[in-house]
């Protein structure tokens, strides 16, 4: 039998996040298929110069923005501790995406000087926010820590490639592909946080059932045991469960090994 996608409080946020981010990915994929741009050399912003490009690019970025705020809602509903810094970074990530979608980039064939500057700084804020989000959540689960490292690595590659191109130096890394790698890493982190939120909310359901005296089986996948080398966040102890050979319920008492 399929497991529920989180508890009733978390489920709407999870569904909204998956649908919105999934729609954004679908739209940007279609845009790549119908465009004549080179995905290795051209940045995503340049796709506005394709027929229907501005509308499709804007729709995909706005969908990602909405989905990212739903990720924040999922984490909050799953009762995962969130600092004020984490919430602000989610806001800057989502607002940066939305602003970049509303104000397109400027190109010689379609000059938009003011819009182009706004777009540039909005993208900069957005791309810097995601690794910072992961950094603030690194103690929640090793998955968040590992995906944050991936985001940082791809962001550094993108920054190096962008500035080499900007100042006319030979670029061994095509700016188009490294930008896409950076964005994909950000989306993967969002999906990873959704996975953690879903598992934590299911753990909460089990705890409620146990306190009510009902049997509640523990499943390895629900606790994310073995998912890239770690266990779930233990909200009672403020640390990771499964330390020193002792497996804990995320919300319940410890089991002896």
From TrEMBL:
Keywords: Membrane, Transmembrane, Transmembrane helix. The chain crosses the membrane at residues 12-35, 55-76, 88-106, 118-140, 147-165, 177-197. It comes from the Bacteria. This is DUF998 domain-containing protein.
């Amino acid at each position: 039998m399929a497991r529920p996608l989180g508890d009733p409080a978390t489920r709407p946020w999870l569904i909204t996040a998956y649908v919105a981010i999934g729609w954004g990915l679908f739209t940007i994929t279609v845009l790549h298929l119908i465009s004549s741009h080179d995905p290795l050399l051209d940045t995503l912003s340049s796709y506005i110069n394709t027929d229907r490009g501005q509308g499709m690019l804007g729709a995909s970025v706005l969908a990602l923005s909405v989905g990212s705020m739903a990720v924040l809602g999922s984490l909050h509903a799953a009762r995962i501790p969130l600092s004020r810094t984490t919430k602000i970074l989610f806001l800057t990530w989502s607002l940066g995406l939305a602003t970049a979608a509303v104000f397109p980039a400027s190109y010689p064939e379609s000059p938009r000087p003011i819009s182009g500057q706004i777009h540039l700084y909005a993208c900069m804020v957005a791309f810097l926010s995601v690794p910072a989000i992961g950094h603030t959540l690194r103690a929640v689960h090793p998955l968040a820590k590992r995906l944050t490292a991936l985001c940082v690595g791809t962001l550094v590659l993108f920054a190096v490639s962008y500035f080499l191109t900007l100042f006319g130096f030979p670029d061994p890394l095509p700016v188009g592909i490294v930008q896409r790698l950076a964005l994909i890493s950000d989306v993967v982190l969002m999906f990873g946080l959704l996975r953690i939120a879903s598992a934590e909310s299911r753990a909460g359901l089990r705890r409620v059932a146990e306190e009510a005296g009902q049997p509640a089986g523990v499943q390895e996948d629900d606790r994310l045991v073995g998912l890239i080398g770690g266990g779930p966040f233990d909200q009672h102890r403020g640390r990771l469960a499964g330390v020193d050979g002792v497996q804990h319920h995320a919300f319940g008492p410890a089991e002896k090994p």
